[in-house]
Write a structure and sequence with these properties.
single chain; alpha/beta; about 15% strand; globular; about 260 residues; 8-stranded parallel barrel; TIM Barrel
Length: about 260
């Protein structure tokens, strides 16, 4: 299972808050991440660029955070934050996540964004299920072929048919992706396409099979059994396509992994 689960769950506790929630305190989020970091399934600590100075002020000498930077500031201002991150030895940035302007033509905005990307940090461009989203993937695929370090970011909060289309489209273009979901949707398999569903759907897509059946399943034990049965090569191929799954409730997600950490007795 190490090939399938290693660094699977990104810590999105600081992700953009819901409108009816208060801003998540940095000290509590950082303490919880330090505690969870001992688990090999724990991935990046996702931090908005606008809060990096706040994060930096709370780091201790023993910290070495794998950081995913969320570009909640303008892309023109991003280099300054990346310089600050690069000057901080207690973090190592592994990706920056950038959302395209909602009001813009998505394919054109993707082309402009790709041209402005920092060259030394992999970028995950957030793709919405809006008109032209496949064109965005095509532009990203072309840029990747020319050496750009790109991945796709996507919120898995739509119906299974949309999630399946997205996973399959990424597989067809060999575009790695990271996804996010609310804590309950991520771990409650009766809500469909939690991370067990996403893992199995991605495994299916890597072989050219339909992704939707796995997303519509609600049998957690059956999903777990099918994932446990994946050969090592298939597990590695799955994770080359699915980079990570970001959730705001890290403890709940890690606890739910007990379903596939060991076969049922």
């Amino acid at each position: 299972m190490s090939d399938l689960l290693a660094r699977l769950i990104d810590d999105a506790a600081l992700g953009p808050p819901d409108r009816d929630r208060d801003r998540v305190p940095m000290d509590g989020a950082l303490a919880a991440h330090r505690a969870a970091a001992r688990d090999p399934a724990t991935g990046r600590f996702l931090c908005p660029a606008s809060r990096f100075a706040e994060l930096r002020a709370l780091l201790v000498p023993e910290d070495l955070l794998d950081l995913g930077l969320i570009a909640d500031i303008g892309i023109e201002e991003l280099p300054e934050t990346l310089d600050a991150v690069g000057a901080e030895p207690r973090v190592r940035i592994s990706a920056v996540r950038i959302a395209l302007p909602e009001e813009a033509d998505q394919a054109r905005a993707a082309a402009v964004t790709i041209a402005q990307l920092p060259g030394d940090v992999p970028a995950h461009i957030e793709v919405r299920h809006s008109p032209g989203w496949r064109d965005v993937l095509d532009r990203m695929s072309a840029a990747q072929e020319h050496g750009a370090a790109l991945g796709v970011a996507h919120r898995m909060d739509g119906p299974p048919v949309e999630a399946a289309a997205f996973i399959s489209a990424c597989a067809e273009r060999s575009l790695s992706f990271t996804c996010t979901a609310g804590a309950e949707r991520a771990v409650r398999h009766q809500d469909r396409h939690g991370f067990l569903n996403i893992l199995l759907a991605t495994a299916s897509a890597t072989h050219g099979h339909e992704a939707r059946p796995a997303l519509e399943r609600t049998d957690a034990s059956g999903l777990a059994a099918d994932l446990l049965a994946l050969p090592g090569a298939e597990a590695r191929a799955t994770r080359r396509l699915l980079l990570s799954f970001g959730v705001p409730g890290l403890d709940a997600a890690l606890s739910a992994l007990s379903l596939i950490r060991a076969p049922a007795a």
